Amino acid sequence: MDGGPIVAVTQLHHLHDTLASVNVNLSADEIISLNEPNVPHGPLVLSEPASRRRRMPQISFFFRPALTLAVLLLGAGLALPGLPLAAEGARSIPPPALDEPSNPQATSEVAVLAGGCFWGVQGVFQHVEGVTNAVSGYAGGSADTAHYQMVGTSTTGHAESVQITFDPRRISYGHILQIYFSVAHDPTELNRQGPDVGTQYRSAIFPTSPDQAHIAEAYIAQLNQTNVFNAAIVTRIEPDRSFYPAEDYHQNFLTRNPTYPYIVSNDLPKIEALKRLFPESYRATPALAPHAGSPD
User: What residues are labeled active site?
Assistant: First the structure.
């Protein structure tokens, strides 16, 4: 884990971004008072790089009660006008025509995927049968910039990513990609996912072998050709990139903070979509990343 200070507003940036998308400006203290996430590593430090702060007009005192209600509704998972929830993007898609051949000797394989905030992507794959571990982290940049506060500047080349370890005898790489494109994120959004904007939220696949790269390329072409989505897939395939685990407080975030407003609005619907669209692949008990604390 990074030895630097934990910056609480970087944990709260998702709610900041969501509020910005509906032109609501509440202070960090007010947001924390609405729904403070489970931060197991000490007191909150209210600071954030200038590049991560949203500049918005101040809201008059008389409008704050109504805006507070709007935030609470958002935390309950209710949509506000012009702010689609994550579940709206989930859809049934065909499996890949090309997949890895069965290999009874292979007991473990690793996939690295990026699809917006790693909290939700990790949460989805922790509920997939055959997945033995899913770790939030960073891929696409160098080791010295693989830190949350730096990645948030959109200048490091990193994407928030998840390293998925799975048993290929129980689930194939192709099926991992099917869930990724169908449930975990919207592959047609360029350098963003929902309220989160920046290259660190890009849709990207970091293949760990030439076979994975070939399967991913073929599947993207297949999905584009069949017009499953309303727009072209913008997912990038970025081979030969290292993965760096994220700070400990990001691991298992969905499981540890199921009532956090961003999780309720954007990520819990993905778990429900997984259960609905892939019932044979859904596991109720998540495969939690080690050394990241226990659910409260």
Answer: 117
